[in-house]
Amino acid sequence: MKAFLRSYWSPILMLLLLAFTMMVGNTADFRVNISLLILVVFGFVFLIQWLFQKKKIAQLQAINTQAELSLLKSQVDPHFYFNTLNNLYALSNRKSEKAPEMILKLSEIMRYVIYKGNEKEVSLKEEIKYLENYIELQKLRFQDKVEINFSKNGVSDHLQIAPLLLIIPLENAFKHGVDSIVKDAYININLTTVKQQLFVEVINNFEEEDKTETTGGIGLKNLKRRLQLLYGNDYEMVINKEKNEYKFQLLIHLK
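The line above is the sequence of Sensor histidine kinase; the predicted structure tokens follow.
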């Protein structure tokens, strides 16, 4: 209640001051003063109700926004985990030395998704480490089929970002790029920060017969909605598809 009064003391004080001024000006008429007092009381009650309703609406909007964000995060593509488990099973049957490495990378990824994925923000370096683990697992899966280049420039310790954002364009590059190509697939990832600005670019090739929409399907639509909820107008996302190359670009002003 104290916090509420501190937040809205100005209109309440103005209403009380107005009532006092009007009553002082009509000291000779008791009935007028009583009427004014009743009107002020009703006005005060109405104001309090309106302010409480306004606060309640803001709280509900915040709850709905958080619920929507949680739902969108839960829609991160699960096929990666199924594919990784299948590959792990195959490596185990062959008694491959790569199996323990794959288990370790997968456990780190799942730990990040379960624990860090529920946080409002994580360090940009943690998000990058998550991407690197994902890439290493995909390299074990595709081996020499794909060439992956990941360049990072200007990443500092203090920058924070919402978790599980940057994985979506990378998943998209594998799903609609590498999976559709027999050989000579490539993915180039560029991540650059300048002060509070984060620029991310993911470029991949694909077979020209691929019918993927420029928007990239549900994954990128979910990403766009999450960016709107989290960063408002402080981001730009551009997607281009020309011939057999797909280019995703994202600019975010990190807070």
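Note on the example: The mean pLDDT is 76. The CA atoms of residues 196 and 255 lie 7 Å apart.
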